[in-house]
Design a protein that fits this description.
This protein has 142 residues and is mostly helical. It contains five helices and no strands. The longest helix is centred in the middle third of the chain and has 28 residues. It is elongated.
């Protein structure tokens, strides 16, 4: 006899189809059910209350503005800590662009120049191979 070949019993096993949270409200052992306080609330204080308030997000504009302000403050603190660490280790602290709207690679190139829009191509400590090529030209010109 092969027990795996077919279903042994037909129908709803375990009473899953017959379960109702309304029946749990009237049951004397309602505390034994997981989620009974949310799915089967009983009592005056729970009437017309939002029992799942903690699971809902806050979509208000004030909350979004507060989150953006906090992120900006954290960014400024991290920059200050990075500058302090660079100074303590003896590295040159580069001046930061003051919100010129530069992001990504543009911000890196501008940071290499020291000030936004300042300086030309000559005399600028560039990033990458251009700096080495400039050194070789200077040595050749001497």
């Amino acid at each position: 006899m092969d027990l795996v070949a077919g279903v042994r019993k037909e129908g709803s096993r375990g009473g899953r189809g017959d379960f109702k949270w309304e029946d749990v409200k009237d049951n004397q052992h309602r505390e034994n059910y997981l989620g009974h306080s949310l799915m089967a609330p009983v009592g005056r204080w729970q009437k017309n209350k939002d029992l799942s308030w903690y699971a809902k997000g806050d979509d208000s504009a004030a909350a979004q503005e507060a989150a953006n302000a906090r992120a900006e403050e954290i960014r400024r603190i991290k920059e200050a800590e990075q500058d302090a660490l660079s100074k303590a280790l003896g590295f040159e602290v580069l001046p930061r662009a003051s919100g010129a709207g530069l992001t990504g690679a543009n911000a890196v190139v501008q940071a290499g120049r020291g000030a936004v829009g300042g300086g030309g191509e000559e005399g600028v400590a560039g990033l990458g191979m251009n700096d080495r090529i400039g050194e070789k030209r200077e040595k050749a010109n001497r």
